[in-house]
Amino acid sequence: MPGLVPGIHVLLAARQDVDGRVKPGHDDGEAFGLKAFANSVAAREAFVGAGCGGRIIRYGGENRHQGLKTLTPELHQKLTAWRRHLHAHPELSLQEKATAAFVQEKLTEFGIPFEAGIGGHGIVATLRRGSAQGRVGLRADMDALPITEDTGLPYASRHSGVMHACGHDGHTASLLGAAALLVDDTDWSGTVDFIFQPAEEGYGGSRAMVAAGLFERFPMDRVFGFHNWPGLEAGTIAVHDGVVMASGGRVTITIDGHAGHAGMPHLTRDPVMAAGHLIVALQSVVSRSVDPLDTAVLSLSTIEGGTAANQIAGRVVIRGTLRFHRDGVKDVILSGIERTCAGIATSFGVKVTPEIVMGVGVVINTPAEAGLARTAAEKVRAKVRRDLAPSMAGEDFAFYLQQRPGAFVWIGNGQLRDGAELHGPRYDFNDAILPVASSWMAEVAKTALASN
């Protein structure tokens, strides 16, 4: 998820090492009631020929109160081990080769056919049952971030300078869990596509998969996804009516002046001085140009210029980001940036060149699909929230929603603690929410198919 989001993870899941061995004396679900959830499952395992050189592993159990297929304790343990394996072996955007191979290995175990290499390292697995014509997509992202991990966990990243600081390891494990549930569940009819997406962190993974013919090759009617959400009670599912997350763009402003001796500034055109005034002036774009009832952010985050204390630099580069919840706000911000840059250029006799590269669109849930997402959350007995404000973080799930109706929800990762947050070096996905995440994804697919 591009952009920083306030939040934190509290490790509530079973204390296991990276290979999934459980350490005694800890219940991985007790923290928010998943112990009862798991105990309601009649666990079973059956093995049949997979027809692909492997075996199909059955993990579904039936909730006796509602007739729902839910995770067995065995599957929860396996998903935790898989998630921690992925956490220990993160890969950056566009480099998810080993992660994709791991996903393909598990899909083969389940006996679910798939196509790989879609829009990079993307994978789409397809499961069909019955004669219904409805088709639903479920999506998880797979890439990690260029951040050095500082958790001290036994399954911490083994790749220097790379970590799963946004929970995509948990998203991938959750979607594998949903696949395991649906392959073992006979109480649905239709087609489900499991989308394992690369390059979500600002590298256009969803756009690349769509460009590779995602919706033509797998003509799904709707698409659903989720993001873990630190700071929200673990296992709670937040469903927004309308806007969920922001659109945004990357801002680069280059100021070219005339370098010279710092003791003779009258012979120079100082880009550092111009940069200081520009940074201050640009803060008025949102506060004085954007309607106060709209939501927008323009943050200038880095500044580079100069190499010597006794020289006035010839060039300064400022970088930042802009975010908004309504497309009409974009033009107001872009116009304000251009106008302000032109004014600073004239005032200080320098050349100011703004460059704005727009990224993901606004994530907007469609009404019917938001309703299906809530219904599925209620069916898996999750607490549902409808009162949370949208986030200014971005998510490239927006590109799917530009093509198909759907919904993107947040699943609470746990309380704020220890200063760790999404995109922070001490962040970790909460394995205790895997049963809720996997069950919700499986159930939203079934609910959507039944609604057809």
Please describe the topology of this protein.
Layout lengths: L33 H6 L7 E3 L5 E3 L2 E4 L4 E4 L1 H16 L8 H14 L3 E5 L3 E8 L5 E7 L26 H16 L6 E8 L7 H7 L2 H4 L4 E9 L6 E2 L4 E14 L3 E2 L9 H19 L6 E10 L5 E2 L2 E10 L2 H22 L2 E8 L4 E2 L2 H13 L4 E2 L5 E4 L3 H4 L4 E9 L19 H18 L1
Parallel strand pairs: 7-8, 7-9, 9-20, 10-18, 11-19
Antiparallel strand pairs: 1-2, 3-4, 5-6, 6-8, 10-20, 11-15, 11-16, 11-17, 12-14, 13-15
Reading off the top of the CATH hierarchy, the class of the largest domain is best stated as Alpha Beta
Q: What is the C-alpha radius of gyration, as a whole number of Å? A: 24 Å
Structural class assignment: alpha/beta
How helical, in percent, are the residues?
25-40%
In angstroms, what separates the terminal alpha carbons? 31 Å
- Percentage of residues in strands: 25-35%
Plain-language structure description:
With 452 residues, the protein is α/β, with parallel strands linked by helices. The chain folds into 2 domains: 30-242 and 365-451, Zn peptidases (Aminopeptidase, 3-Layer(aba) Sandwich); 246-358, 2-Layer Sandwich (Alpha-Beta Plaits), CATH 3.30.70.360. The chain is 31% helix and 26% strand. The chain has 11 helices and 20 strands. It has helices spanning 34-39, 73-88, 97-110, 168-183, 205-211, 214-217, 271-289, 327-348, 367-379, 398-401, 434-451; strands at residues 47-49, 55-57, 60-63, 68-71, 114-118, 122-129, 135-141, 190-197, 222-230, 237-238, 243-256, 260-261, 296-305, 311-312, 315-324, 351-358, 363-364, 384-385, 391-394, 406-414. An 8-stranded mixed beta sheet has the order 5-6-8-7-9-20-10-18, sandwiched between helices. A hairpin with a 4-residue loop joins strand 3 (60-63) and strand 4 (68-71). Helix 2 (73-88) runs antiparallel to helix 4, helix 3 (97-110) packs parallel to helix 4 and helix 7 runs antiparallel to helix 8. The model is unreliable at 2-57 and 63-68 (pLDDT under 50).
